[in-house]
Write a structure and sequence with these properties.
With 365 residues, this protein is α/β, with parallel strands linked by helices. Helix content is 41%, strand content 14%. The chain folds into two domains: 125 residues, Alpha-Beta Complex (Aspartate Aminotransferase, domain 1), CATH 3.90.1150.10; 223 residues, Aspartate Aminotransferase, domain 2 (3-Layer(aba) Sandwich). A seven-stranded mixed β-sheet has the order 2-8-7-6-5-3-4, sandwiched between helices. α4 runs parallel beside α5 and α6 packs parallel to α7. The chain is globular and about 55 Å long. The protein starts with 18 loop residues before the first helix and ends with a helix. 45% of the residues are buried. Bound molecules: pyridoxal-5'-phosphate.
Length: 365
């Protein structure tokens, strides 16, 4: 059997390790596993969402409303856009996939930062596209503009705040990059963690309406992070109607589930839950900064719900993550991104206490 040549270039995406793996491999009780590897909301989801799922469970046999009218209207009024500016995906991941399939032909180029969300590369490579990266993990305006001018990529990916580094790009800088790019190139502005950045510093808040004047920019958001719905798989893309109607050609019918739709609609009604989640996060992340200082390693200032610890030659990120894993604490090793660093999702107070306890032992060993 001869597979699509493009597959040769693709490394399978390595997802954060599930709780079940630690239970199986190390015999740790599920309740003792602390999972801080996938940037889930440690508070879970809004209790109103759980209630709505229970109340609607009997509808599991029904296909969802494929127009997704209610969810799109709620998002439209939240973001001050129109419903036909919105496409819903099974996670914003699926919107990234629609974008790649709608635009890329073999040997087209795409541009992204040195270290960023791994799925941009995977979806682009599936289409046979070539990956161009800037020199820095930060989204530096000059680097993006000069790489854009040199390579004329078909898509430019801007991830702010950036995953897995946690840094963000100011609205001013993002707009400078967008302004330098002509309409032949699509700019994907991935705001998966925007709720956290916007709460931390207004200069980093970018809303879909800020990019609506540009025909070649799409804003992506997700319910997986601040809204605590990673398991329901709901994300969205917001752009002008021409772009959205092209992406609709890539969308399979009923691409999110009946209960995912219920969850996302309900989640938008409980913005207090999101505000409380962010407040908890802002308090707890300070302990992570203090922990790094106390143990003499550095970290990247975070605009997200995780922190990236950077180690020098005294510590090895793979050894540290493996040692933590054996004790039931799951974090994300960034060695595969060629960084001696780890990414840790900020958990609840109790989870963070446990992480600090185990990590202290590991660092002193
Ligand atoms: C989590 C994440 C997404 C999308 O997640 P979904 O669960 O597919 O919505 C997109 N971009 C970045 C940078 C992320 O971290």
């Amino acid at each position: 059997m001869k597979f699509n040549e493009a597959l040769k270039e693709i490394k399978i995406y390595e997802a954060g390790k599930p709780i079940e793996l630690v239970v199986r491999e190390f015999g740790i009780e599920p309740k003792d596993v602390v999972k801080l590897a996938s940037n889930e909301n440690p508070k879970g989801c809004s209790p109103k969402v759980s209630e709505a799922i229970a109340q609607n469970a009997h509808k599991a046999f029904l296909y969802p409303d494929d127009s997704m009218h209610e969810l799109k209207s709620a998002l439209a009024s939240k973001f001050e856009v129109q419903s036909d500016n919105i496409i819903i995906g099974a996670g914003s991941d699926q919107v990234l996939e629609f974008v790649a399939r709608a635009l890329l032909m073999p040997n087209d180029k795409v541009l992204m930062s040195q270290v960023t969300f791994a799925m941009y590369e995977i979806y682009a490579k599936q289409m046979g596209a070539k990956i161009i990266r800037t020199a820095s993990y930060e989204h530096k305006v000059e680097e993006f503009i000069s790489a854009y001018n040199e390579h004329k990529p078909k898509i430019v990916y801007l991830c702010t705040p950036n995953n897995p580094t946690g840094d963000a790009t100011s609205k001013e800088d993002v707009l400078k990059i967008i302004e330098a790019i002509d309409e032949e190139t699509l700019v994907v502005l991935d705001g998966a963690y925007m709720e956290y950045a916007a709460a931390k510093d207004e200069a980093y808040r970018i809303e879909p309406k800020d990019i609506m004047a540009y025909a070649n920019v799409i804003y992506l958001g997700t319910f997986s992070k601040a809204y605590g719905l990673g398991g329901m798989r709901v994300g969205y893309g917001i752009a002008n109607t021409n772009l959205i109607s092209q992406l609709y050609k890539m969308r399979p019918p009923f691409n999110i589930t009946t209960l995912s739709l219920v969850s996302a609609i309900e989640a938008l009604k409980d913005e207090n839950f999101v505000a409380d989640s962010i407040a908890l996060h802002q308090e707890e992340i300070q302990r992570y900064e203090a922990f790094a200082k106390e143990h003499n390693f550095s970290y990247i200032e975070s605009y997200t719900n995780f922190i990236t610890y950077l180690f020098d030659e005294n510590f090895d990120s793979t050894k540290i993550s493996d040692a933590l894993l054996k004790q039931g604490v799951i974090i994300r090793n960034l060695a595969s991104y060629k960084m001696n660093a780890v990414r840790i999702t900020i958990g609840t107070k109790e989870q963070n206490d446990r992480l600090f306890e185990v990590m202290k032992e590991v660092l002193n060993a």
